[in-house]
Amino acid sequence: MSTAVPDQKVRIVSSTAVKPSSPTPTHRRTLNLSLLDQLFPAGWSHSLLFYARPGGGGESLSSRMRASLCETLTDFYPLAGRLRGSARIDCNDEGAYWVEARADLPLADVLARPDGTLLAQFLPSSHPETSLLAALGCLLIVQITTFTCGGVAVATCGSHKLLDGSSLAFFLRSWSARSAGRFEGGRPPPPRFLGDSLVGPKEVPFMLSDYAGMESCATRRFVFHGSKISALRAEAVHSARPGESTRFTRVELVLALIVRCALSASRSVTGSSRHPTLLRQMVNLRNRLSPALRDNDVVGNLAFGINILYENSESTFHELVSNIRREMISFTKGAQASGSDSGELMSIACGSIGTAGDFFGKWKEESRFYRCSSLCGFRLYEVDFGSGKPAWLTSLSLAKNFVYMVDAKGGDGIDAWVTLDRRDMVVFERDEELLTYAAPNPGVVHHVMHHSRF
Question: Of 12, 71, 385, 422, which has the fewest Cβ atoms less than 10 A away?
Fold first, then answer.
């Protein structure tokens, strides 16, 4: 099939199901999901990787990737199944969905000034032909887009009912290793699907996704280079009180600055400082349980949101980052104490949801709700399908008051995608404190030309 709309630069040219190369055994035909899987909405976990002029051409790469995906799905068999309700996957080998597309522009044009609206066209979940697949229970869609220059975009949309950021990264590394032939002569360690073995599904009366809101929003990209993050860390450490933890992560430092500037923008627009704020940050549970779980073989939602409450919207940068660090320490201690006790983990999960529900019930329209998710540290720049590592990669959410972070190309910096109310964004993107540390949407063409090995 071939489709296009006037405002789009990308057109789908073919689509088909891709099934596992070997049938799933009968005893694996059902995967019951956990409470943490259940709490995630039935949306997509995205990744978008760009490759410049793959050896042998885009069509050769696409053919190799498709064949290796069939083999990879034999191990990641639930991704070829269908979601039934909110807590069960029927591993029936109906297949993942494979989409091939063409872009009527060169890759360099995309990377000169990355734009969220254009980037969304490389995601299969944005097209009418594929956007309804989630409602039909499909768990994985892949879109391969070839540019006029021969470059390729690889977009992966995996159901958030099964894949958190760590799981998606593990899948991509496994699939790319097969495509590149790095598993020749031996079978890779199979993934472990925890399902309901850790925490069984429950009836939950409240879902944070109810507050996702996407009306009248604007999305912008800001790059925080490693040297600027170091300067932020120095400022936070200098302001620390005796006895306070100063082991701030990159994500915590960048998030605190973004939230501070977003709150300042909101005050400027509304003229009111009465903005009680809930910040919800997603964290990886794997290394916070006791015993810890490895990132490289466990598949499932082992990410969880911690709540940071601010009743004073005029908090300083130090107050914001210190509160984030304090809540992270407290949450980690609780998770480690619970170990593999499903009752304790259930208590932590429901307690967090209840805190958010109480907050919204108390403050209603006076409140501000910000969310952050991060793919930093998941080694996505190592995803090599056999023709080199990504020239650039990203992932973004267009939900209101959302901050999405990925590792910046070629260093220890962070690419941050920030989505705010349009009126707030006008003020936010001009904030002098923000611009001291962040570069607004710099181009990445230099990396394509000089750092890719194609």
Answer: 422
Q: Report the SS3 class of residue 11.
A: strand
In angstroms, the first-to-last Cα distance of the chain is: 31
Please give the Cα distance from 256 to 252 (Å, whole number): 6
At residue 116, what is the residue type?
G
* Domain shared by 180 and 291, yes or no: no
324-349 pLDDT, tens digit per residue, is 999 888 887 776 666 555 556 666 66
What is the 3-state secondary structure of 78-135? HHHCEEECCCEEECCCCCEEEEEEEECCCHHHHHHCCCHHHHHCCCHHHCHHHHCCCC
Active-site residue (options: 46, 127, 160, 225): 160
CATH number at residue 103: 3.30.559.10
Helix (H) or strand (E) holding 59: helix 58-75
pLDDT tens digit sequence for 283-321: 888 877 767 776 668 898 888 888 888 877 678 899 999
Q: 103 forms bridges with which residues in the sheet? A: 10
User: Is 384 designated active site?
Assistant: yes
Angle at 412 between CA 411 and CA 415, to 5 degrees: 90
390 token code pair: 């990504």
Q: Indicate if 160 belongs to the active site.
A: yes
User: Do residues 373 and 442 share a domain?
Assistant: yes
Distance (Å, rounded) from C-alpha 404 to C-alpha 419? Answer: 9
Q: Give the global pTM.
A: 0.90
Residue 231: C-alpha distances to residues 228, 236, 357 (Å): 5, 9, 36
> Same domain, yes or no, for 254 and 218?
yes
Residue 310 makes CB contacts below 8 A (sequence gap 6+) with 263, 276, 277, 278, 279, 320, 323
Q: Which of 164, 196, 384, 407 is catalytic?
A: 384
